[in-house]
Amino acid sequence: MNHRQIEAFRAVMVTGSTVKAAEMIHTSQPVVSRLIGQLENNLRLKLFERESSRLRPTPEAKSLFVDVEKHFSGMDQLEKKAKSLRDGRSGLLSIACLPAMAYGPMPKFLAELQRQLPDLAIRLEVNSSNEVRELIASGRCDIGFAAEEIDTHGIVARSIARRRALLAVPTGHPVADLPKVSVLDLAEYPYLGLSSTDSTQRFLNSVMASAGKALRITIETPYTLTIASLVVSGAGIGLVDPIALDAFEWPGLKLVPLVENIHFNTLVIHSATAPLSAPANLLIRIAEDFLSR
Hints:
A hairpin with a 2-residue loop joins strand 1 and strand 2 (54-57). This protein is α/β, with parallel strands linked by helices and 293 residues long. It is rod-shaped and about 105 Å long. The model has no long low-confidence stretch (mean pLDDT 89). It has helices at residues 3-15, 18-24, 29-43, 59-87, 99-102, 106-116, 129-137, 199-210, 224-232, 242-245, 278-292; strands spanning 48-51, 54-57, 90-97, 119-126, 143-147, 155-164, 166-170, 190-193, 216-220, 238-240, 253-256, 263-271. The chain folds into 3 domains: 3-87, Winged helix-like DNA-binding domain superfamily/Winged helix DNA-binding domain (Arc Repressor Mutant, subunit A), CATH 1.10.10.10; 90-162 and 266-292, D-Maltodextrin-Binding Protein, domain 2; 166-261, D-Maltodextrin-Binding Protein, domain 2. It is built from 11 helices and 12 strands. The two termini are 62 Å apart.
């Protein structure tokens, strides 16, 4: 018993004749008859009663057909699954993301990705940028979004979102209504600093040092959302990444532009040894389209 014999058997069961079965499996009627005869000999079962030009299945054939249909149904599902994977419509996409992006625009990116690929399973992990880098380097996640200060050795990295930093102050603060404020003026106020490893914070520190000034850092934290919450609570002022705040309402908080050109820069990263999947590439296109607007 081989696949070709089973295929001929199924075709005869579905169409009711060897002529139509031959058309169904793209062969000739004599070949179908020969395959059916071989199958009956191999199984030592009579599968059809011959009635002129038609074949009437025996009870044994009907019973066998139930299992044959299950087999072909499974093969059809396997082919559909393989095509879906080739087209990038299903499978699993694992994403590692820094909080600024994860709590900002990432939900919009994923909603659009889900709309275009409804069968795709998605796993989102929110981590610090260095942890994101490790998840990508180790192969535990497919694609990552991290701040530019990470070590990019051994991975593929490029900028996907670069935006100017803004100064977050409580409403009623002396600089809240200024059109712009210089970072050199921030030395006068309690300051909420980003982590000392953050490239934006390091650049700010160097600007202050060049002017012979220093920030009065009262609280240090790695996350923009934490700084914004601290500002609203009256703990001080600090630079924030506007992309992280866009999805929330912040009553009591005012964002003031800076005179200096200070940026936050987010990288999209992936493994240097494994190509990106179709869903990962689509996510990048969705993110780039959204961020360009």
